């Protein structure tokens, strides 16, 4: 059966101070209160709990066994109160207690990692978490994990989000230099790609409007991320789209070749950052880095 009590933080602090300092006088001094105020708080705590918490026999007032058990719980509550004070102070300073960002894996992660490093170096209180997903999976993760920001190349289905336009991101259709398509001369019609394997990351999406869109439902290899996709293309398994930030130095060394597709072998993504509410200091730094 639960017992209703009206125990206050002051009463808990008095019990904690007595346990730490040993005497009522020292406990009062540590809390900057009078001796009688501490004694009154402890008496009221005993009345509220219905327990004898203090052994008043002898030279010093000591905690009874029940007092020790109650002290354990009081210290847990006081620790939570201190944690709440820290959170409030952080919020008043404009720093978010935590910030969760979901990033489409086609985009470079380096700008966000630079923010993580800078905030850590500055001692900012925000706990920053970064998740990577792809295409429609970005919004799925954003909703499922109740994240704060998402950076996506597909338009969101959710309504009411605030949006920040980010710089465009170019990708090129490439193959390894040993691949038959890389040795072709002149513009390639789309049907010239039919006999070959299109390498994708977890499929594609018609909303991307890629020039290879009609091929997505046939001879493809679907991989988990762009590192695996690049490795597959470098092994000559097939051809595919890679963002330009992943193409150097292979393009410069001509290990990878851009394919001269008639319908266009360069695609420009238009990434956007979406968020729910007002941007705090850490979120603002993320936006500045991505811009």
Secondary-structure map:
Elements: H1 9-21, H2 24-31, H3 35-49, E1 54-55, E2 62-63, H4 65-93, E3 98-104, H5 110-122, E4 127-133, H6 136-144, E5 149-152, E6 162-165, E7 169-176, E8 198-201, E9 220-223, H7 226-234, E10 240-243, E11 256-258, E12 266-269, E13 272-275, H8 281-290
Parallel strand pairs: 3-4, 3-5, 8-9
Antiparallel strand pairs: 1-2, 5-13, 6-13, 7-10, 7-11, 7-12
Tags for this model:
291 residues, alpha/beta, Arc Repressor Mutant, subunit A, D-Maltodextrin-Binding Protein, domain 2, five-stranded mixed beta sheet, four-stranded antiparallel beta sheet, 20% strand, rod-shaped
Fold and architecture overview:
There is one protein chain. The protein has helices at residues 9-21, 24-31, 35-49, 65-93, 110-122, 136-144, 226-234, 281-290, and strands at 54-55, 62-63, 98-104, 127-133, 149-152, 162-165, 169-176, 198-201, 220-223, 240-243, 256-258, 266-269, 272-275. It is of the alpha/beta class and 291 residues long. Strands 4-3-5-13-6 form a five-stranded mixed sheet. The radius of gyration is 31 Å and the shape is rod-shaped.
Strand residues, percent = 15-25%
Summarize the helix and strand pattern as letters: HHHEEHEHEHEEEEEHEEEEH
Per CATH, what is the topology of the largest domain? D-Maltodextrin-Binding Protein, domain 2
Characterize the largest beta sheet: strand count, sense, and whether it forms a barrel: 5 strands, mixed
CATH level 1 name of the largest domain: Alpha Beta
Mean pLDDT: 89
Low-confidence stretches: none
Strand order of the largest sheet: 4-3-5-13-6
Q: What global shape is seen?
A: rod-shaped
Radius of gyration: 31 Å
Number of distinct helices: 8
The second-level CATH architecture of the largest domain is 3-Layer(aba) Sandwich
Helix coverage percent of residues? 25-40%
Please state the structural category. alpha/beta
The number of strands is 13
Task: Return the domain count.
Answer: 3
Gap between N and C termini, in Å? 58 Å
């Amino acid at each position: 059966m639960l017992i209703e009590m009206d125990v206050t933080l002051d009463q808990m602090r008095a019990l904690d101070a007595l346990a730490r300092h040993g005497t009522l006088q020292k406990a009062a001094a540590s809390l900057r209160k009078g001796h009688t105020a501490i004694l009154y708080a402890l008496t009221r705590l005993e009345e509220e709990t219905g327990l004898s918490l203090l052994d008043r026999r002898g030279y010093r007032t000591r905690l009874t066994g029940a007092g020790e058990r109650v002290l354990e719980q009081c210290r847990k509550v006081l620790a939570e109160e201190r944690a709440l004070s820290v959170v409030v102070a952080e919020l008043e300073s404009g720093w978010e207690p935590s910030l969760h960002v979901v990033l489409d894996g086609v985009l470079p992660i380096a700008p966000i990692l630079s923010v993580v490093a800078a905030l850590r170096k500055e001692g900012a209180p925000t706990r920053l978490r970064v998740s990577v997903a792809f295409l429609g999976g970005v919004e799925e993760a954003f909703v499922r994990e109740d994240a704060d920001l998402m950076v996506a190349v597909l338009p969101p289905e959710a309504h009411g989000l605030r949006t920040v336009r980010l710089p465009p991101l170019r990708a090129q259709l490439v193959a390894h230099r040993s691949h038959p398509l890389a040795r072709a001369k002149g513009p390639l019609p789309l049907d010239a790609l039919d006999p070959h394997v299109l390498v994708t990351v977890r499929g594609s999406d018609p909303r991307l409007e890629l020039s290879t869109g009609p091929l997505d439902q046939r001879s493809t290899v679907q991989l988990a991320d762009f590192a695996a996709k690049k490795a597959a293309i470098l092994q000559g398994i097939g051809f595919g789209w890679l963002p330009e930030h992943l193409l150097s130095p292979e393009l410069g060394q001509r290990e990878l070749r851009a394919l001269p597709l008639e319908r266009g072998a360069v695609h420009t993504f238009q990434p956007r950052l979406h968020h729910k509410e007002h941007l705090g200091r850490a979120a603002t730094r993320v936006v500045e880095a991505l811009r």
